[in-house]
Amino acid sequence: MFWRIDMWRNLKRINQESGVTVLVTTHLMEEAERCTRLAIMRRGQLVACDSPANLKDRIGGDVVTVRTDRPAEVRAILRDRFGIEPQQVDQELRIERSRGHEFVPQLIEAAPKLIDAISVGKPTLEDVFIDLTGSRLAEELQPV
Question: Whole-structure pTM over 0.85, yes or no?
Answer without folding.
Answer: no
